[in-house]
Amino acid sequence: SGSHLIPNDSGNTPLHRAVLLQQIDVVKMILNKMSDVDVLQKNMFGQSAVDIAFQTGNESIIDILLSHDSA
């Protein structure tokens, strides 16, 4: 059920990658289609998707992540 969110060797989930690459449509799709996503799940560097969004400075993605139920 949560296999679509399995992290890579660095602990990054597809959401981490989409946020890092600032792919807003992919971020929206992941949050809308995957009920068990956690925007605060940390990778092996202690960074969540929210942390990465703040690092990129993409306010639209920050707003989307912070409005999610898991934030």
Features:
mainly alpha
Which overall shape is indicated by the principal axes computed on the Cα atoms? globular
Q: What is the element string, with H for helices and E for strands?
A: HHHH
Largest sheet, strands/sense/barrel: none
Cα gyration radius (Å): 11 Å
The residue fraction in helices comes out at: 40-55%
- The pLDDT mean sits at 91
What is the tally of helical segments?
4
- Report, as a whole number of angstroms, the end-to-end distance: 21 Å
**β-sheet strand percentage:** under 5%
Q: In terms of per-residue confidence, which ranges show pLDDT below 50 for 5 or more consecutive residues?
A: none
Please provide the count of β strands. 0
**What class would the helix/strand composition place it in?**
mainly alpha
Describe the protein in words.
By secondary structure, this protein is mainly α. Helix content is 46%, strand content 0%. The longest helix has 10 residues, at 24-33. The protein is globular. The two termini are 21 Å apart.
Quick description:
With 71 residues, the protein is mainly α. It contains four helices and no strands. It starts with 13 loop residues before the first helix and ends in a 5-residue tail after the last helix.
List the helices and strands and how they pair.
Elements: H1 14-20, H2 24-33, H3 49-56, H4 59-66
